[in-house]
Design a protein that fits this description.
Radius of gyration: 20 Å
Strand order of the largest sheet: 1-2-3
Number of strands: 5
Strand content: 5-15%
Helix content: 25-40%
Distance between the termini: 45 Å
Number of helices: 6
Largest sheet: 3 strands, parallel
Shape: globular
């Protein structure tokens, strides 16, 4: 670094950067929605920032450095949206999906539970046009960002109190999504 660049770094940041430089193997992982792409009304329209994908590809090209995008989205959706950046690992469904055929490993009981959750969430989503259900290989997401605030909060609570309490269900909260 030049003297001018060193003067701009806080001592804490400089210490952290030096720790990174000395790390024998580094993993740089990023979320997708709200990090690589903006939060938008329609999740299908969440386009990643080109510069962010370029940066992750460049990091993945460094020796002993791995880059990953980890998302609540399905692995297929994540691959479609990112274009599967070369050298960057994609992990979908909150860490559950590493391989494209992940859904085939679900048991019949797990598929029935997912379908039961989907049915219950769709009944709740029918309360307002701003509510949406997204079915994934091993989960179901309830989006309420497009609903009036009070309706969205009420329906999100209904999801948590209803299908969120079924045996075998793990609830994860996100940005206006359950």
């Amino acid at each position: 670094m030049t003297d001018a660049a060193e003067q701009q770094l806080s001592p804490e940041l400089e210490t952290r950067l030096m720790e990174l430089v000395r790390t024998p193997v580094l993993l740089v992982a990023s979320d997708y929605d709200g990090t690589l792409s903006p939060i938008v009304a329609n999740p299908e329209d969440a386009v990643p920032h080109r510069e962010a994908l370029v940066a992750l590809r460049q990091l993945a090209d460094l020796p002993q450095t791995h880059a990953a995008i980890i998302s609540g989205r399905s692995l297929t959706d994540l691959a479609d949206l990112t274009g599967e950046p070369q050298g960057v690992h994609l992990v979908g469904s909150h860490g559950s999906e590493f391989e494209p055929d992940f859904a085939s490993s679900l048991t019949a009981e797990q598929r029935r539970l997912r379908d039961r959750i989907e049915t219950a969430m769709k009944e709740i989503a029918a309360r307002d046009e701003g509510l949406m259900v997204e079915t994934k290989p091993a989960s179901v997401a309830f989006h309420f960002r497009n609903a009036p605030s009070e309706v969205g909060q009420e329906c999100a609570q209904a999801v948590m109190d209803g299908p969120g309490k079924y045996d075998g269900v793990v609830v994860k909260l996100g940005k206006m999504v359950v």
